[in-house]
Each structure stands twice: as structure tokens, then as C-alpha cells.
Amino acid sequence: EMDQNFALEDYEVEAGYVLSCQCYPISDKVVLDYDEM
């Protein structure tokens, strides 16, 4: 979940993009892979 979003457009959020600096996990397992982008 993102606390705030002032940078992404609605279509980007709908496509699954998130701001990692504004996110927090909602499950026990979290993987961040910036190289996969």
C-alpha cells in the first residue's frame, strides 16, 4: 500500500506501479528487485 502518491498518474497505479519510498508491506513476504525493471 502507498501512503501518498504525488508523482504517479492513475493509469500507472492501475498498471501496478508504486513508489517504494511511500509503500509498506501488507504481507509477511516482500521482495524488492530493482534490476528486474
UniProtKB/TrEMBL annotation:
One of its GO terms (molecular function) is iron-sulfur cluster binding. This is Phenylacetic acid degradation protein. It comes from Marinobacter adhaerens. The lineage of its organism: Bacteria, Pseudomonadati, Pseudomonadota, Gammaproteobacteria, Pseudomonadales.
